[in-house]
Design goal:
globular, 0% strand, mainly alpha, 3 domains, Helicase, Ruva Protein, domain 3
């Protein structure tokens, strides 16, 4: 028997907190894959949208809907898609259904997209981040910093200690703007 399971929670933390059975965790956690959320794969959003729109429109002869420039920028470069690919697919279905040949404007979007845009437009976009996501990113950054300090920026040693691939460690370094030279002995300290 094979079971494929997915979760958006950290099961290791839940096991440690007594919220998930340890034996079940070890039965399920044979081959672990982390699939980053859509907001971390921004280059895929437009590609997926185009696929969904093409599927929605089929062969009925309608052309793909267009967007006003600021709406295009907002949807494909700013909006975080907390519902991931399902949300993007539903938005694509909605846009295909309401499209009448004119460019899609903000007034055409569902209300929650307009509300998020209004809040984003008035504030620093970082203020809109989910507090759980902020806490997770802080934990992830600290998770990386400890072995970097311990191994003085030696990437292979950090990879081995964290059980991460070299490419994943470099992704995290880039994501958090961390330079390994800051951890090498004799490097000037940041002030």
């Amino acid at each position: 028997m094979r079971i494929i399971a997915a979760t958006n929670r950290n099961l290791e933390d839940m096991v440690a907190a007594g919220l998930f059975r340890e034996d079940l965790y070890y039965r399920l956690n044979i081959c672990h894959f982390r699939i980053p959320p859509l907001r971390e794969r921004r280059d895929e959003i437009l590609i997926l949208y185009q696929y969904f729109i093409k599927t929605c429109l089929g062969d009925d002869g309608r052309s793909a809907p267009t967007f006003e420039n600021d709406v295009f920028h907002y949807l494909f470069e700013v909006y975080p898609f907390p519902g991931n690919i399902r949300e993007l697919k539903n938005l694509s279905l909605y846009i295909a259904a309401i499209s009448d040949g004119r460019p899609i404007g903000f007034a055409d979007l569902p209300e929650r997209y307009r509300r998020y845009y209004d809040a984003w437009h008035r504030q620093d976009p970082k203020n809109l981040m989910d507090p759980r996501q902020t806490a997770r990113e802080n934990a992830e950054r600290n998770f990386l910093l400890a072995p970097l300090h311990q191994h003085q920026g030696n990437i292979p040693a950090v990879c081995w200690e964290l059980s991460l691939s070299r490419s994943r460690v470099y992704q995290l370094l880039q994501k958090y703007g961390i330079r390994t030279t800051e951890f090498r002995s004799g490097a000037p300290s940041a002030s």
